[in-house]
Input
Amino acid sequence: MKKNLPILLALAALVVFGLVRYEHFGSAYNITSFWRYNSMFALISVGMAFVIITGGIDLSVGTVAALASVVAALTSVYGGWVAVLAGCAAGLAVGVLNGLIITRLKILPFIVTLATSLGAHGVALLLGKNDAVSISAESNFGNFGQGDLFGLPIPGIVAVLAALAGWLALRSTRFGRHSLAIGGSEEAARLMGLNVDRTLVMAYAVSGLLASMAGVILAAQFGAGQPNEGVGWELFAISAVVLGGTLLTGGEGSIGMTIAGVLLLGLVFNLLNFENGLGFISLSAYWQSVIRGVFLLLVIVLQARVLKQRGKKRVAAPA
Amino acid sequence: MALKLPTETLHTEPRLGETAQQMTAAPRAAPATTVRKWRHLAMQREVIVLLAMVLFNLFFTPHFWSLQTFNVNMTQVVTIVIVGIGMTLVVATGGIDLSVGASMAISGALAPMLFLNIAGPAGITLAFVLPVLAAALCGVFNGLLVTKLSVQPIVATLVLFIAGRGIAQVVTDGSLQAFNTPAFQWIALGKVAGVPFQVLLMLALVAVFVWVVRKTLFGQYLLITGGNEKAAYLCGVPTATVKLIAYTLCAALAGLAGLISISVNSSSDANVVGLGVELDAIAAVAVGGTALTGGKAYIGGTLIGALIIQLLRYTLLAHGIPDAAALVVKAGIIVAAVYVQRRSR
Output
């Protein structure tokens, strides 16, 4: 728990700072638009968390989202739900492919997902003929990104449901517990008789599925499938997971803290917009990435110190 | 003991690596000589693939056998290979550097500011030296995070991957710096005997680093550190310093690649310089036969890996297959190359 303190404090500090300094920071409009926009990043980060917990990494989520957005836009003429299902099917397929290559051919996840990332980008460009694909104007598909349900943004609801499902799955399903065990020690998990390969394929499938849901939301929100969008999303997701205190070596991790990481990265952007709105200073959007980098640095430095102390205690305890 | 052992560990190290691998992977040839022979063969396989592709093009691609085609293909890979050399060193330690594109952007943003504002040869000289030093500083930062704080390399270099390009954008305010400075751009546009200087520079760097890895103490330390860091440390290898140097060299080389990249384009745009180069470099390293698990460094392999990927793209384009399809084929090549290496080693 102590490890998570820096990020929770930073998050609280940013929220308090925003509430005190900006009049409209706490407005319903700001909260819903923040929620709507960041739901995409929450989805890919939850998927990434599962993969990282198993000790792997998924570099393909960004272009999988792009691919799914193009597929959804192309199929939106057949109706909203068809588009959603087709987009998700595309992501699921890439995720399963990742998992199968990693487990059957025994190649490092980093390389495999790097390759499928290139491949998914290529397929997205081919399908979209190197350009954005508008969604069908007649279908209700746009609602999936822009619509509200009970006054709440639909993509936000999807993200919350996915996060809850992920949290539950990690806590109390066989898949979740096996993922943690495999991340802790794949060899030990195998020797204990766990079906390591199946769990790994499932983890990459979940990651691909959630990434494609983000892509479907992207297409619905902006009215077009974007084959060149999503570049760099995988690193956003990795930083959110790392900010949430999940070690890249696997074996531990938390969905809740990953969401906290997403919120922190999103808040930096949101606060920067408000600050520019005040008109005292004009920080260009470029500062956004610098500030995000600094936050990441601060959190990993603090985590390194906490981990070092923990290590010392562990050494001291038996004596 | 600590001082004398390192040279001896050089010979015992391969066996250390083997026992570790024997436990996890397929059985491997035991004596060191066979291992070396296999390594030799493995290198040859990549060369054979490259030669086969050249032959294919000679027969089926019109105008392939010309200095122009050679120059086009070579200049396309220069930055990837130069970054790839540094990446090979970092990968050899068992690490990875995601921030090379950001280092390129930073050095690419600084150089025009220097030679556009300081007149004469002093400005040109500074424009070569300071940006590379700034990039090297990024590497020192990465190296310190990895060694002093024991942060995982992916996470440590993620910081600059995110912030580095932002720094370059803030410094230039995101605007494009166009220039026409032949004295500076000679590094990319100059030609020696019809061959672009940047290609010769790339080949020279490959030669130098092949020598560094094979013949110098640093090279040996590098491989031992990547092979089994704990054992290397216990044998008195200064593993932290070795890693720090690897990250610094990697970033400095990326800085140099940034200078070449802006010279080719006659402009520097912090949003674009070196974008995505980390993935290209890693792909070249992997296709070139350097395992991402560390302990090996095939600089020549990285050059060949980059050439294979480039020639593949050129071949597909020359035969009217769109660039997007080339991406899919590239993905297949990366997986296939790594799979074949896994099986034979």
Observations:
- Chain A touches chain B through 46 residues (CB under 8 Å).
